[in-house]
C-alpha cells in the first residue's frame, strides 16, 4: 500500500498518480486508520448480548434487550454493526406456510381484495394468515398476525403451539379495538379460506 512506501524510494505524488487516487483521499484514509473506532463500545455490548443468547438473537431482539438495559441506540445501527461484525442469528426456527384448508366447513367469504394489496387509507385493508415455525426438538409454533396493508403495521397477533380456533380469535380480538378506534373507512379483513376463517365464531366476530 502507498502508506507503507518510503519517501526516499518513491515519491508519494507519483504513486497516487499511478493508482489514480487524489491526495486528499489518501490523507483522509490515513487519518481514519489512526482514529479509534467510535462504535467500539456498542460493538462490545452487542457481542455480549449475542453470545449471552448463544447466537439465537437477531438485531431486533438485541436492540430490545439493549433498550431494556437503558441504552439508547437505533435498531438500524444495531443491524449495521452486526453486519460489520458478521454476527448472524442461528436459524433454529424454520417457517413454512401453514395449510389450514379443509374444504368448505362454514361460510366462504367473497374475495373483495382481488390482489389489490395497496391502499392510501389506514386500516382500510387488513390481511391475516398463519405461519408455522418448525423449532428445535421437532416442536412447532404457530403465529397469527393481522397486518394493515397501508403501512405494514401489525395491529394484532397471537402465538400458540397448536393452531386452534381460540388462538386465531385472540389475534382478531386484539385487532378489532384498533380498527374501531382508528379506522376512517370500512375495513376489509382478507384471509385465505382456511377452516378458522370459515368458522361461524370468526365470521360473526
Automatic annotation (TrEMBL):
Domain Integrase catalytic: 116-205
InterPro entries found in the cross-reference section: HTH-like_dom (IPR025948), Integrase_cat-core (IPR001584), RNaseH-like_sf (IPR012337), Transpos_IS3 (IPR048020), Transposase_IS3/IS150/IS904 (IPR050900)
Pfam families: HTH_21, rve
Role played: Involved in the transposition of the insertion sequence.
Protein name, entry field: IS3 family transposase
Amino acid at each position: 500500500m502507498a502508506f507503507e512506501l518510503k519517501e526516499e524510494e518513491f515519491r508519494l505524488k507519483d504513486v497516487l498518480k499511478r493508482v489514480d487516487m487524489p491526495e486528499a483521499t489518501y490523507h483522509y484514509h490515513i487519518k481514519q486508520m489512526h482514529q479509534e473506532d467510535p462504535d467500539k463500545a456498542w460493538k462490545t455490548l452487542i457481542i455480549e448480548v449475542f453470545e449471552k443468547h448463544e447466537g439465537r438473537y437477531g438485531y431486533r431482539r438485541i436492540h430490545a434487550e439493549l433498550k431494556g438495559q437503558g441504552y439508547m441506540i437505533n435498531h438500524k445501527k444495531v443491524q449495521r454493526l452486526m453486519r460489520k461484525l458478521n454476527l448472524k442469528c442461528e436459524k433454529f426456527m424454520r417457517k413454512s406456510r401453514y395449510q389450514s384448508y379443509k374444504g368448505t366447513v362454514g361460510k366462504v367469504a367473497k374475495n373483495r381484495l382481488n390482489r389489490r394489496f395497496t391502499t392510501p387509507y389506514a386500516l382500510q385493508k387488513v390481511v391475516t394468515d398463519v405461519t408455522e415455525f418448525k423449532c428445535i426438538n421437532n416442536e412447532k409454533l404457530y403465529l397469527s398476525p393481522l397486518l394493515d396493508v397501508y403501512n405494514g403495521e401489525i395491529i394484532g397477533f397471537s402465538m400458540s403451539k397448536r393452531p386452534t380456533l381460540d388462538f386465531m380469535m385472540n389475534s382478531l380480538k386484539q385487532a378489532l379495538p384498533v380498527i374501531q378506534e382508528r379506522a376512517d373507512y370500512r375495513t376489509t379483513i382478507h384471509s385465505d379460506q382456511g377452516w378458522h376463517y370459515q368458522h361461524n365464531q370468526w365470521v360473526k366476530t
